[in-house]
Amino acid sequence: MGTLVFLPKYKNYIIFLNISFLLVGCAFLIVHFEASDFPVLSTSEISASGISRFSGSLDCKVFLSLDDYKAKCFHLKSKNPCVSQGYINYLNIFYCKFGTFPQLGYCCMFLWLLVLFYLMGNTASEYFCSSLDSLSRLLKLSPTIAGVTLLSLGNGANDVFSSLVSFMGGGNGEIGLNTILGGASFVSCVVVGILSISMRKRRIRVNKSDFVRDICFYLLVIVCLGVILIRKEMDVWAAMAFSSLYVVYVIVVYVSHTRRKKCFELSCNSSNESDLTVPILSSIEEEDLSAAEEGAAQGSSEVVQVKKCCSNLISSAFFRTLIFILELPLYLPRRLTIPVVCEERWCKPYAVASVTLAPVLLSTLWNHQFGNVSFKTKLAIYIIGLVFGITFGIVAFFTTEKSSPPKKSLVPWLTAGFVMSITWSYLTAQELVGLLVSLGYILGVSPSILGLTVLAWGNSLGDLITNLTMALNGGTKGAQIAFSACYAGPIFNTLFGLGLSLVGSAWSKFPSPVLIQSDPYLLETVCFLAIGLLWALVVLPRRGMRLDGVLGGGLLVVYIGSMSLRLIQTLGSVKF
């Protein structure tokens, strides 16, 4: 967090994304002058498409049978939109705005896809994880419980929100299922595979009992998910039972960690393995902390040298101003609506503005989501949001200092930051899912394959970078933590992310069961995922629990085989 200050390459990446954002906006404005209608989904369109999903699917079949972009544009204007997620009608933009030059439309959508991936990941890392970390410290949670609850939620936020949007947004639940399964396959096969191959020369062993525990529990989750897919329906009680399996997992992890810690305290001469049982977070020993601090000091000195070398390039006030302006479109809206109270990023004007504008944003989103209410009701909601915002702003102005964040009454601040981080993550996930579904219609590819590949890869790249860096730089303990995270993370995403989505979807249909969208290849993906887990369960103990090329190569072969078969089966056929 806060890497924008010292990483020039990361800064260049942010500048590219902001330029992409500006280019997309400029291209949209230029093309917008050729037509009078504004391609944003109205509330009535969203609610209508959510209510009459069956009739909308028939309209979309007619839409797909049209060849001319003018005919498709006319159909989109006269019928309900085929895509109900998000606030932007991407199909309308592509066929009605960029119909005469589709290449520009493809470029704009690709750049916008990168911007959305960045927004989703950056919001999770800079705001969401910061709030969770502060909450865990405030609540004085043990490292084990914090690791398998709050920090797991921070690591899997992208998959959780994508799944929620897919099921709860009136859209296709196949995207949520394929995203969760695609991300789980990528992490447990590709990330573990690359990690094992990268660590093969170091002959590092991982803890056997923790590995067997996580793998067996994950296989149990996969079996339960397979039963759900075979039945193709689920009531609210079954959904709650499936989701509550994660509570069982947390208890098992906590008990095993406690027993290991007691054994370590009774045997002072035993090897230092007591803290390796935490899937996501580990209590690092004091000597490890001192070594890490020395490495951080060396790294910071190198960073200072890099900054000195680059200082000549950014010395001019014009260049600094230009960078600041380029960062504003993606930074300012979130900074003005998400309260932040950490010491490094404290700014009283931003803090007062965020607590003032956050209720206004929530009231606006509420009115847009439930747009079938009367004008007086909408006006009342706006007034309530404005009154709360002004009240919070006045209180924040008179109770905070300019030099440092508040030390007392942190719960309201952290809760507000947590809620607004969720709001922005959910909004971004809505747009991301809506864009992928729209691209599926435009390219003639099933949205489920885009969820299995593009969305799953985009959400899981952070896990690959984080776990690989931790394993390469953290020694034996870092490798253990990274390896355990590759299984605990997907368990959390499947049980909590997918489970919560199923609970919400089943609750909306109660007492009738919710029907699971029939994708003929979902069970195939589950089977390949199980094969990868079984491969690791068989190979790793026989190799003395060493991470090597045999384990990693086999996992990569399983994943490549799964994706190749799925792409061959799905590409070229539209299955909505």
TrEMBL record:
It is a multi-pass membrane protein. Residues 111-254, 414-565 form the Sodium/calcium exchanger membrane region domain. InterPro entries: CaCA_antiporter, NaCa_Exmemb, NCX_ion-bd_dom_sf. One of its GO terms (molecular function) is monoatomic cation transmembrane transporter activity. One of its GO terms (biological process) is sodium ion transport. Keywords: Antiport, Ion transport, Membrane, Potassium, Potassium transport, Sodium, Sodium transport, Transmembrane, Transmembrane helix, Transport. GO terms for cellular component: membrane. The keyword Transport applies. Its main location: membrane. The chain crosses the membrane at residues 12-33, 101-120, 141-157, 177-199, 211-230, 236-255, 350-367, 379-398, 410-427, 433-458, 479-501, 521-540, 547-568. The keyword Membrane applies. It is found in: Membrane. Signal peptide: none annotated. Belongs to the Ca(2+):cation antiporter (CaCA) (TC 2.A.19) family. Cation/calcium exchanger (CCX) subfamily. PANTHER family: CATION_CALCIUM EXCHANGER 2 (PTHR12266:SF18), NA+/CA2+ K+ INDEPENDENT EXCHANGER (PTHR12266). This is Cation/calcium exchanger 2-like.
